[in-house]
Design goal:
The protein has helices at 24-34, 54-62, 130-146, 166-175, 215-218, and strands at 4-11, 38-46, 65-74, 77-85, 89-96, 106-112, 119-125, 151-157, 194-199, 204-209, 224-229. By secondary structure, it is an alpha+beta fold. The protein has a 6-stranded mixed β-sheet. A 5-stranded mixed β-sheet has the order 5-6-7-8-9, with no helix packed on it.
Length: 230
């Protein structure tokens, strides 16, 4: 039996929009409109257990569980990646892919309960430097090769817009060439920084960027959405 699953990746830029305003409600409205079963978030600034924890607020908007993946511990709280999921969680792990001397980076590895098929989802946000991204792509490739899952998803902000970039070429050896859609900057998207990779490719039923009056202003990235048949 085939299971339909909607996934998305979204760099929310600390909930700071194109007008410079910090407004988690705009991000929450976008998440509600996505109606996704799994959402990978990047650049999430939150304060665990606080009365007004942004991450908890966003999860409630989607009626989802939270898998947090902080990479920075700041004075005001934590910052990094997160997964929101409506699906049951079989297993989740945080994996450090940081490069010495660069901003810490990580991968969230998650096994959702999707029918009888084994599925692994990896969510990440790669670094700004070329060599850094190559190193991180190599680390991710090793995780992919070590997985015994029948279906694999890799998504996030890869900070790479060139199709010949080292990180992209490294991951294409595993996933093959897949569609790259422009997601940055949100008001006039020019660069395909955000990606969703799926293996087997036949499981990808559709890929699109959500671009409307809300997403143009809520963050500096547009959300990327995929429908999967697993």
């Amino acid at each position: 039996m085939v299971s339909f699953v909607r996934i998305a990746t979204y760099n929310i830029h600390r909930c700071i929009g194109g007008d410079g305003r910090h407004d988690p409600r705009r991000i929450a409205a976008v998440l509600e409109s996505l109606d996704a079963d799994i959402v990978a978030l990047q650049e999430v600034a939150y304060t665990p257990n606080a009365r007004h924890d942004v991450l908890r607020f966003l999860a409630d908007a989607l009626d989802a569980r939270v898998i947090a993946g902080p990479t920075l511990w700041e004075k005001e709280g934590r910052f990094g990646n997160a997964l929101l999921t409506r699906l049951d969680v079989r297993r989740a792990a945080r994996i450090d892919i940081s490069v010495t001397g660069r901003e810490p980076r990580g991968v969230l590895q998650f096994q959702p309960a999707v029918g009888q098929r084994s599925v692994t989802v990896l969510a990440t946000h790669l670094g700004l430097a070329l060599r850094e991204r190559r190193h991180q792509a190599d680390r991710i490739a090793r995780l992919l090769k070590a997985s015994a899952a029948e279906a694999l998803v890799l998504m996030g902000d890869f900070n790479e817009w060139r199709p010949w970039g080292g990180a992209i070429r490294r991951l294409q050896t595993y996933f093959g060439t897949q569609t790259a859609l422009r997601t940055f900057p949100s008001r006039h998207p020019l660069l395909p920084l955000d990606r969703i990779w799926v293996r087997p490719a036949a499981a990808l039923g559709g890929l699109r960027v959500l671009r409307d009056h809300r997403t143009r202003w809520a963050s500096d990235h547009l959300p990327l959405v995929a429908d999967l048949n697993l």
